[in-house]
Specification:
The chain is of the alpha/beta class. The chain has two domains: 70 residues, membrane protein fhac (Ubiquitin-like (UB roll)), CATH 3.10.20.310; 140 residues, Cell division protein FtsQ/DivIB (Rossmann fold, 3-Layer(aba) Sandwich), CATH 3.40.50.11690. Helix content is 33%, strand content 27%. The protein contains six helices and twelve strands. A nine-stranded mixed sheet has the order 6-5-4-7-8-9-10-11-12. The protein starts with 7 loop residues before the first helix and ends with a strand.
């Protein structure tokens, strides 16, 4: 009688090896197909004109004119929408001192939307170099030799030893106090203030109709502005003519004094 002698251990090793080779072959075939398909997709994206930016739209503009950003928009057009460098485009927009934030989104197949958030000019800082237009957060927006047509309150009396470039924040605690007064009041009251002067921490406001307002220090400034708002709405030219007022004194807490010219 003949017996078939089989090395079980060797048999299992060979079967295991065959299985690994089969899995490797399947993986290589899958990888090859994947690379071919991916290559075709990339080629289509790169070379098919439909994926080239044909329209770029900016929204959120109020102070800036769209025409001032046209060159940047034209540079975007014609680029591939998939490989568009949004960071680089955003940095170009943020180089404009009036732009605080920018968000760029793709609208396939060929449209780019640029949403901007602007810095609003709130005051003009009077310096020996000219009138610096400021945002609420003390950013240097622009400088002019005359106030021009800006209907913004002037900030005077602040001495700056160093002024940063356009687009930079001007670091000054005194300036921050002046801007706090402007931003802390409502639009109507702000429109009535022509100038804020700060001298040795004493704050004096001048209204557009010629009234001097003694505000004292910056403490309790929000309450002082509320009182001033009430005076301007309910007293000035209502019970007392503006021509009769020498000044309004708000230096005392929770009260006010209106000094008449003949007093």
């Amino acid at each position: 009688m003949n017996y078939l002698v089989t090395d079980i251990k060797k048999y299992k090793q060979e079967k295991k090896k065959e299985k690994k080779l089969t899995l490797l072959s399947r993986f290589l075939i899958f990888l090859f197909k994947f690379l071919v398909i991916a290559g075709l997709i990339i080629a289509i994206i790169i070379y098919v004109p439909v994926f080239k930016v044909a329209e770029a739209q900016v929204t959120g503009l109020f102070y800036l004119e769209k025409n001032s950003l046209d060159n940047q928009l034209e540079d975007i057009k014609g680029e591939n929408i998939v490989f568009l460098n949004k960071k680089k485009i955003g940095e170009a927009f943020l180089a404009n001192s009036y732009i605080k934030e920018v968000d760029i989104s793709r609208k396939f197949p060929n449209k780019i939307l640029v949403q901007v958030k602007e810095r609003a000019p709130v005051a003009l800082l009077v310096t020996t170099d000219g009138f610096i237009q400021l945002s609420e957060d003390s950013v240097f927006l622009d400088i002019r030799q005359t106030p021009g047509s800006y209907n913004l309150p002037l900030i005077t009396g602040i001495e700056l030893y160093a002024i940063p470039g356009v687009g930079k924040k001007i670091e000054s605690p005194v300036l921050e106090e002046a801007l706090k007064i402007i931003s802390g009041s409502n639009r109507i009251l702000t429109g009535k203030i022509a100038e804020i002067n700060i001298d040795n921490e004493r704050i004096i406001a001048y209204t557009r109709n010629g009234i001097t307002v003694l505000l004292g220090g910056a403490e309790d400034i929000d309450n002082k502005l509320k009182i001033l708002e009430g005076i301007m709405d309910d007293i000035v030219d209502v019970t007392i003519s503006v021509s009769e007022i020498e000044h309004i004194d708000l230096r005392f807490k929770d009260t006010y004094v209106i000094k008449r010219i003949q007093d």
